[in-house]
Amino acid sequence: MVLDWFTWNGWTVAIVAVLLILMVSRSLQWPANVPPGPTGYPIVGSILLLSGKKKPKETFRQLRVKFGDVFSLTLGRNLLVVINGVDALKEAFIKRADDFSDRPDTYRSATLMKRKGVAMSSGQHWKHTRTFALTTLREFGFGKKSLEARVMEEVYAFLDVMGNNSGKVYDPKHVIQISISNIICSIVFGKRFEHSDAKFYQLVDLLEEAFRLNQTRSAARNMSWLRFLPGDFFKIKRNRDNFYEISDYMQQQITDHRNTFDPSNPRDFIDAFLKEQERQEPGSAVFEDFNLQATISNLFVAGTETTATTIRWTILQLIYHTDIQDRLRREIENVIGPSRFPTLSDKENMPYYKAVITEALRFGNIAPFSVPHGASKDVEFRGMTIPKGSTIIPNLDSVHFDPNVFKEPTKFNPDRFLGEDGKLNGKEKYVFAFSLGRRICLGESLARLELFLFLTTLIQRFELLPENPDKMPAGPPSKGIQSGPPDYKVKAVKIN
Length: 496
Known about the structure:
Elements lengths: L1 H28 L17 H5 L4 H12 L2 E6 L2 E7 L1 H10 L1 H4 L6 H6 L10 H17 L5 H20 L4 E2 L2 H16 L9 H18 L20 H24 L9 H11 L9 H32 L1 H14 L15 H14 L8 E2 L4 E3 L2 E3 L4 E5 L1 H4 L43 H18 E5 L23 E5 L2
Parallel strand pairs: 2-7
Antiparallel strand pairs: 1-2, 3-9, 4-7, 5-6, 8-9
């Protein structure tokens, strides 16, 4: 027993020593002028700063004050560089896009997703995949009137559910998620699902979990060796299992499409990919099944959860601010009237709606750190060197909640975006909810269409009331780096 104890502890000391040597040797390779930042601890670096009770957003705000618009933290052997503020963000991701458009090698991007898809790939693979995705999405409605019809089909289904629950208190989360996800389904799978479909319901739950897992435990993304520890405190193993479950679902859809595929009549995004796959040389890195799996998973995660969460944020704020809800309803009545459904052409005549949704995107701050970027080479930036292999974070929160950009940023105030003439005053250009630069969300146009049609029809036909007027929804947004609203229930009363 004593010998076993010494042997076990000897191995432990050896492992710790090797990790320390690796960490120190890596840090010694960094240039002397890396961005400044807090001193980390051996092996774990600054992980404790991101794993405590304080939210990463608050930590980064404090570090920005101390170290400036470009600072860094060590996470294990990796360097995390955080870029803050309007000027630095635009300089990096727009003016210097060639240097700042790659993705970092994390456990999810490199090991699970194999650097495939639109979201996690880099270089020529990313460019070719993104070009195909954008071209195909346009063929199936992006930017066309036909897409509005697809969205309205789900709006009608959404209103039916709301009408059946008129006057009742309930959580609208799942009906919103399913309605938004069905729009992506119609483009990718060529069909929609009933709200009662159990298998589809399971997919929506998996997608929600994927978004949540990918937005939380951010430090663990740079320290994948944590998955070898007992248990799953950092949710790395659950992240892996969730990824495989979604991949299996997507592969089944691909297989079903292949069994009924007619190259002369592509029905949807998957068919368009299969058609192009047949035209390519065998072994194409872009047109292979796993890249299709990864791409449609990206479309679902980005196209469902962010829009659905923004709608939930907006409803919550309209419950809190009945004056804003009433003013928005008056604009809808003046421009559209009480009877006909809104159309996208109405949007240009509704500046208050534009101000409300812009404020919801800013205040909701759904993805405050966007998606991590990576340095594929040493990058000289503002007199500092960002070493090859660094993870680069676009800190969108540093703009959305900067009091120098938006006065009293913690208040929900659509009027901040309106001038004396009642039109948008230009401040909307500082809301980076869909990120910025080359990696801007390719589904932005669809998301904005969905937000307009869902919210205007909802406010046109229902009054939104709290579950209990004397006890409004309370509690902080969800933990981690995602900014979802607290769970709440609403009473939507149909307007006669």
